[in-house]
Design brief:
By secondary structure, the chain is an alpha/beta fold. It has helices spanning 2-10, 27-31, 48-72, 80-88, 106-117, 127-133, 154-164, 179-191, 209-214, 230-239, 278-283, 301-321; strands spanning 75-78, 95-99, 121-125, 142-146, 169-174, 196-200, 224-227, 243-247, 253-254, 265-270, 286-289.
Length: 322
């Protein structure tokens, strides 16, 4: 029957003389092959995570550029005591700004005399202009323009200590980001006989005009170094024979039991919030706490550093007299 004949034709196998089936040439099989693991979201150009990663990288680059530009620009030290201290220390200042009509005293007179004798330009400016130049700092009518701070090499600090004839005393700052705290620690370190201060390269305050002012100019006399890796630097000093002591509220000893004070020593000051980092804490030979009255909050980082450095200086004086 016709109908049966049509049905039989429809059921012919592919490749028969009538109606050969066109194949894919193996393309379908190739299309099923895997193309490797899926890239991470941040590596896919059209993914939001990729755009966020690019934006974050660009922001980091801009911050680095701003920091390098700030470090390369001259600083203005403001305030009568800091300016006089810097001039006495003979730092390479380029200009002394004096506010018109400033009430003169011994410090203003001395600043002008030193600047004139060293060939530093003395410029009289309106008080509002000096406010602008100093960024609104408490300048007391004086501002000193200084070049960017020249940091020492950490390896030089031990050599300077050896020249002093006393056991080395160094101060390391672990993540102190407030330049005022940096300046205060530098001032205490100089006052109590430290031979130098070391800062980590990252996540740390640098020697800016604020730090200059808070240090009252002592940053000009005390060498400050930058370590690429603070933990590694502390280990190098430990191998050289220095003991490493970290300030910590839960220290293994309190400041009254700091028997390491009279020997070669590194005092490590933690950051304002979290204190010592884990790796630095593990590097310390001892951690030291400061006894305080009940109910009193922990001391500011720079104040705590001053207390411990004062105790170290006291013990060293006693040892020298014995």
């Amino acid at each position: 029957m016709a109908g049966n004949s049509k049905r039989r034709g429809a059921m012919r196998k592919p490749g028969s003389k009538k109606g050969a089936v066109v194949g894919s040439g193996g393309q379908r099989a190739k299309g099923l092959q895997g193309k490797g693991p899926t890239p991470k979201a941040a590596d896919r150009p059209n993914h939001p995570a990729h755009r966020r990663a690019n934006a974050a990288a660009k922001a980091d680059q801009q911050r680095s550029q701003r920091r390098r530009a700030a470090e390369a620009a001259p600083e203005i030290v403001a305030g009568r005591n800091p300016v006089v201290e810097c001039l006495r220390a003979e730092i390479p200042a380029t200009a002394l700004y004096v506010a018109l009509g400033v009430e003169s005293d011994d410090r203003v007179t001395e600043a002008v005399q030193i600047a004139a004798s060293r060939g530093i330009s003395v410029l009289e400016v309106q008080r509002g202009e000096l406010d602008r130049i100093t960024g609104g700092a408490m300048h007391q009518g004086l501002g000193l323009q200084v070049p960017p701070y020249e940091y020492a090499d950490p390896r030089d600090l031990l050599e300077l200590a050896a020249q002093s004839g006393n056991p080395p005393l160094l101060v390391a700052l672990d993540g102190v980001t407030d330049p005022r705290n940096l300046g205060a620690v530098v001032r205490s370190a100089a006052a109590f006989g430290a031979h130098g201060v070391v800062l980590p390269q990252r996540r740390s305050a640098s020697v800016t005009a604020v730090a200059w002012r808070t240090s009252a100019g002592t940053a000009a006399r005390l060498p400050i170094a930058v370590a690429t890796n603070l933990t590694r630097q502390l280990k190098e000093w430990a191998e050289a024979g220095l003991m490493v002591v970290g300030l910590d509220a839960d220290g293994t000893v309190d400041v009254d039991g700091l028997d390491l004070a009279t020997g070669p020593l590194v005092v490590v000051v933690g950051s304002e919030g979290r204190g010592l980092s884990r790796l630095v804490r593990e590097t310390c030979d001892q951690t030291v706490s400061i006894p305080m009255a009940p109910g009193v909050e922990s001391l500011n980082a720079s104040v705590a550093a001053g207390v411990v450095l004062a105790e170290v200086a006291r013990r060293r004086r006693q040892s020298a007299r014995a």
